[in-house]
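Regression test attached.
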Amino acid sequence: MLKDFFSKKKKYATIPREEAKQDVPEGLMQKCPQCKKIFYRKEVHKHLKVCPNCGYHHPLTAWERIDSLFDENTFVEWDKNMISENPLDFPDYAEKLEKDRKKSGLNEAVVTGKGKINGFPSAVAIMDSRYRMGSMGSVVGEKIARAIENAKEENLPFIIFTASGGARMQEGVLSLMQMTKTSIAIERFSEAGGLMISIMTHPTTGGVSASFASLGDFNFAEPGALIGFAGRRIIEQTIREKLPEDFQTAEFLLKHGQLDRVIHRQEMKEMLTTLLDIHQPGGVSE
Amino acid sequence: MKDQVLPFEKPVVELKQKIAELKKFTSDSDIDLSSEIQKLEDRLEKLVEEVYGNMQPWDRVQMARHPQRPTTLDYIQEIFEDFIELHGDRLYGDDEAIVAGVAKYKGTPITVIGHQRGKDTKENIRRNFGMPHPEGYRKALRLMKQADKFKRPIICFIDTKGAYPGKAAEERGQSEAIARNLKEMAGLKVPIICIVIGEGGSGGALALGVGDRIHMLENSTYSVISPEGAAALLWKDSNLAQKAAETMKITSYDLKELNIIDEIIPELKGGAHRNIKEQAKNIDKVLHASLQELISLSSEELLEKRWEKYKNIGKYTTLSS
């Protein structure tokens, strides 16, 4: 029969049972969102969560980042126990904070502290986008400002890894003012001769890109990171035209003169070490 | 130009019209309605108190955006003498969404900078509705540094929906331009006084907003995002803007309560646009007092106090470990 030549197409998708899904231990394999190839999770982690095939940079958690940069047992955390309030009595905000605390194991969207990078002492702030999209409220602003002040006191260079959707809506104008607070701290640090290196990771947008993220003596980014002031959708609605594919990527910013370099994650530690060495002695000139 | 009426003030306007009609009727005919008119006028007085004395956040948002609301250039003309506008960032272009220049204030040389909206469609297009590009912020910074060199106090008028969200703005570094202003303003050794006269929209407002004093006109707003934006983002519904205006705490009274601004500059009943000259006098009074306080400080004291001011903004607690 002729119709036998045409195979019957399935008109439905197979959805594995809940139990079946759990047959594969969570996290054994990992699919790259960019090239769609599947790898052993261990393999990806060995490459600092960079896809071995296409070079896609998976987001790092704050502590993964710390482990990837600092010499073993040298990192000391600052202000670990500082937590947010709900200053505007914003509906559901307290619950959301609590939920993210549990989910991420962090008290807020940034970890600050000091440690040694190939022997060079440095102060750092590392943002974690798993906590409220890395948004900046009072605690993020305060912790970063304090880390910069500490760097100034202790003559340390200051390195920041940003990952943030911008200012935190639920703290309203208090969030906005953290842009000013951190920027003044940087000005004071800079006046004292302090070295600041900013590395923008995916995503760095809004009020964070419009304050400390852009204020390093060196501004770097990880490949493919989304970096910009306004959101893509808002811009498209405003100018009523489609934006190019690579709009607001690290590479786009580099091309437009907004970045010093785009640095691959696996070269990050070496690059930072060289820069720290070039700026010896100390982060702050005597 | 005919006064534009906001929804909440309609009862006042309608009553005023009624009184006017009755008065006309009285003069045209022999019937004496003066006692009725008197009654209505008493009622109007109460109604004005009630309506303008009880403005809700959303009413103030409408007032801050009023098409006839006085702009930076209106106040410059009323408050300063010898204003000379200066143009361009020396890098790319001249952004007319920000005006800046030198002038005298009661004999003292100053630099004045502000966002500038248009008064009609044509002017609004030229000024991009008061929404700056990076070159606007860079022009502002260039002239602030000039002020620093010649030891002139800086006065900033804030009135913008926000920095322009456009393709070219991103390409030329909108983020960097705003960030740089925040950092550089922190280090200027002259007094900086910022006055929010209309909308204080997010980072685009803040880039002219690092001051030793921040004042707000009574019916102006200052926020991290517009009420419409907040509603769309948080509740996926921009129609909830009215609710967002209340929740986000964006009025002058809210910001005073949060200890972010120094003073609320009172507005005339019915808004600043009722009488620009009178409104300018209210601004002048506060500006003069602020400047007197600040010019007596040394530059070291000024910078230290500026840091103290912003350092203390924010609410947090510490877990006992």
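Expected vs. actual: identical. Chain B has two domains: 7-54, 61-312.
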